[in-house]
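Deviation from plan, reported transparently: MRU complex.
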Amino acid sequence: MIKTVEFLENGIVRLIDQRLLPTEEVVVDCKNYLELAEAIKNMTVRGAPAIGVAAAGGVALGAREITTTDIGKFKAEFEKICDVIGGTRPTAVNLFWAVERMRGAVLGATGAGVEELKGRAANEAKKILAEDLLINETLGKNGADFIGDGETVLTHCNAGALATAGHFGTALGVIKAAFGTALGVIKAAHLQGKRISVFADETRPFLQGARLTAWELKKEGIDVTLITDNMAGYCMKKGLVQKIVVGADRIARNGDAANKIGTYSLSILAKAHGIPFYVAAPISTIDYNIPNGDHIPIEERDLREVTHVGNRQLAPDGIKIFNPAFDVTPNENIAAIITERGVATAPFEQSLDKLRR
Ligand code: MRU
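Because the crystal trials were delayed, the predicted structure below was used instead.
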């Protein structure tokens, strides 16, 4: 069985190394919180919910590493660990959501000793991981009815089990499939017995679609066709796509949704061709603190991601490069936002607020 994120008994956070997929299925053990922080930065683990779960594990691991028995010093060091983990990537709000939950579980406890606080950190991280698996299964089922028998769904980047705490290749307990968010919807429709085909955008420059989504869907036995990003419009024009389902890294209060770069253009193509465009994400991806997508920080990544594929250089030396990793799809391009608590439709300000607790 492969798990995206796993917490070992000794506090180690085990990750499947997503940089090596699909050719190598290798796990990486993060033995201290700094290794975990680096794993988030370098995309060993990626995808908003997976980053959140890994971050929670990293904070628990960091708490375990603290040697002082003085409660004041422990809390100060714990805060520092939360800041380091929280500083790894800027766009996916699940990272900050998870770190805040860890902070609350540990620093919110009054009268507890250092060992008890370390235990609380470990338990909270395990809770976040377990919840994530159930959330994705529920979210998938909530969205499955949007996909009809015989339809072809286009998706972008990877919003599958690899982007969450997902498990692969098991029928243990409640986990009957490796769900994920956008792919969770597709997989749930597939499990309902519908014949579903998927177009996976390769997702330049980091190729999460080609490397991860294609790998994951193939493993799940779902029909998948890989296309390059610039083929999406052609496929829509030819009537080859009936639905679009993508994930999200941060959704503003009004429904504007940040997702992998290229999602915004897809939403415009979808509108032009009258194709429903769905966003699937857990409630932890909704940032109720921001009114609209203009407030979402967009990560800019290493320019080498654009100039090179692997070790092969594609562009001349010295050329100017721009590498924003995300864009924002305006709410008017979104037919529905599918969450584990239900489905939100326009006006999103009200419908998303109803899903808030
Ligand atoms: O840079 P990444 O790979 O962490 O970005 C992930 C995405 O943007 C995915 O498309 C996804 O929809 C959000 S996570 C389910």
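Residues 46-49, 157-159, 163, 181, 208, 246-249, 259-260, 325 surround MRU (CB under 6 Å). We consider this an acceptable substitute for the interim report.
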